[in-house]
Amino acid sequence: MIKVYCDGLCQPVNPGGTACYGWVAYLGNKKLFEDWGVVCSGRKATNNLAEYTAVIKALEWLYSNGFATQKIQVYSDSQLVVNQVNGLYSIKSAGIVPLYREVQRLSREFSNLKIFWIPREKNKEADALSRRAYREYQEEYHRKKRLQNAGELSRYVVQKDPAVFFVPSLTFSGQYYLVNLKHQTCTCPDFQKRKRKCKHILAVEIYLKGTGKNATASV
């Protein structure tokens, strides 16, 4: 028998945050597969969308990988999803209708599939996967934002000597931070806290690349 654990979340606010899903499938004690990802961000993002998507993604994978004839039990800590799919709750939101119909359509492809509710504390692995999806989304968002800010700052870099540069603050007008490219350090609070390449170091790398000198901007 295959057991599938599904979960979804919408962070940092619901609705309107970033909807993420996670699921994991086991055949006995053997992990078959796990998956996590982002559904969407913004106005349409909700917990319910994320919870439904987790179930849909799991069923799609199981069907595509030849498990349609297996006995399958799907577990979710969303009472709304489980009770709607099992016909115990009515569907009041128009946005849920296509998700519900997709779960029903996929369910018909399986010969022996049931969905059950479980408490959140028994769904920790799927919960961790959905949170991993959100964490990775946040990291990628901040990486892109850092590169964007660095590109803007690169226009105002002042070179003191071959390894030392002054880079302005985006937050405080008239304030500059000291970047030592040889040691990959910066005097800004972000670098002092994280000890990782900040937007000011990136700005110097972009500046040097633009002047034809040897530097490559990468986070």
Summarize the structure in words.
With 219 residues, the chain is α+β, with helices and mostly antiparallel strands. It is built from six helices and nine strands. The strands form two sheets. A five-stranded mixed beta sheet has the order 3-2-1-4-5. A hairpin with a 2-residue loop joins strand 2 and strand 3. Helix 4 crosses helix 6. The longest helix has 30 residues. The C terminus is likely disordered.
How are the elements arranged and paired?
Elements: E1 2-11, E2 18-27, E3 30-41, H1 47-64, E4 71-76, H2 79-85, H3 97-107, E5 112-117, H4 124-153, E6 158-161, E7 164-168, E8 176-180, E9 185-186, H5 189-194, H6 199-210
Parallel strand pairs: 1-4, 4-5
Antiparallel strand pairs: 1-2, 2-3, 6-7, 7-8, 8-9
